[in-house]
Amino acid sequence: MRPTFALLAALLVACAQQPLPPATPTARFVANPLALAEPSPAASAMVIILPGQVADIESASGKTIRNSKDLLEYVLAGLRAEQNPNVGLVELFESNGLVFAAAQVSYYDTDYRLEVRAWVAATVRGERALVAVAGSPQEEFDVYLPLFQRMVRTLRLL
């Protein structure tokens, strides 16, 4: 395991042990989550967990969020509006009772002149909405699989 991933794993465990922060303001939650982490050539990986309230997202968007796939589609629509990414197949997964939707995303960041690749996952748990982003401007998708699995474990713990 590379040191970056070891550090990231420790960060995810620490995040999972903390109580959920107050809901992120809706405008920030539904905006482009990849923009919350500044991609740079020095950054090797990033994980963002964005909590929010389903009702806030629904009232801001005028759309009904019935499940994890609806939430992910809404986030991806926001990404398409801002970054015009290439979006891989949206898939539904279930793991220990947690149902979540996930997609691979890639786009070219014109500011940093590099391609950013990421996993985006979303889940709805009761009235809580969680979106997680894990990615890097330097690695290929298959390197993300362990990172993605850690992200899912963290989502399950929240």
**How far apart are the first and last residues' alpha carbons, in Å?**
25 Å
Percent of residues in helices: 25-40%
Number of helices: 5
Please write the CATH class name.
Answer: Alpha Beta
Classify the beta-strand content into a percent band.
Answer: 25-35%
- Count of domains: 1
Order of helices and strands: HHEHHEEEEEH
Class per helix and strand makeup: alpha+beta
Remind me, CATH topology?
Protein Transport Mog1p, Chain A
Poorly predicted runs of 5 or more residues:
1-44
Features:
single chain, 30% strand
What is the secondary structure topology, with strand pairs?
Blueprint: H1 3-17, H2 26-30, E1 46-53, H3 54-61, H4 68-83, E2 86-87, E3 91-95, E4 98-109, E5 114-125, E6 128-136, H5 144-157
Short description:
The chain has 158 residues and is of the alpha+beta class. It is built from 5 helices and 6 strands.
Explain what you see.
The chain is α+β, with helices and mostly antiparallel strands and 158 residues long. The protein has a single domain (3-157), classed as Protein Transport Mog1p, Chain A, CATH 3.40.1000. 37% of the residues lie in helices and 30% in strands. Strands 1, 2, 3, 4, 5 and 6 form a 6-stranded antiparallel β-sheet that branches. Helix 1 (3-17) runs parallel beside helix 5 (144-157). The radius of gyration is 15 Å and the shape is globular.
